[in-house]
Design goal:
The protein is an all-alpha fold. Helix content is 69%, strand content 0%. It is built from one helix and no strands. It has one helix at 3-31. The N and C termini lie far apart (54 Å). The model has no long low-confidence stretch (mean pLDDT 85). The chain crosses the membrane at residues 12-30. Keywords: Membrane, Transmembrane, Transmembrane helix.
Length: 42
């Protein structure tokens, strides 16, 4: 019964890193024109 709260506590750092790192990385790649932008302004 103690493993369930422990899994949430140990998984939060990874979740937060992904939520912060992935959008930043994608934005930087799009700004450098290394990845095509899917949401271009018309």
């Amino acid at each position: 019964r103690r493993w369930l709260p422990l899994t949430f506590v140990t998984s939060w750092p990874g979740i937060l890193i992904q939520l912060l790192l992935i959008p930043t990385l994608v934005f930087a790649l799009m700004k450098a024109h290394l990845v095509p932008s899917q949401f271009q302004k018309v």
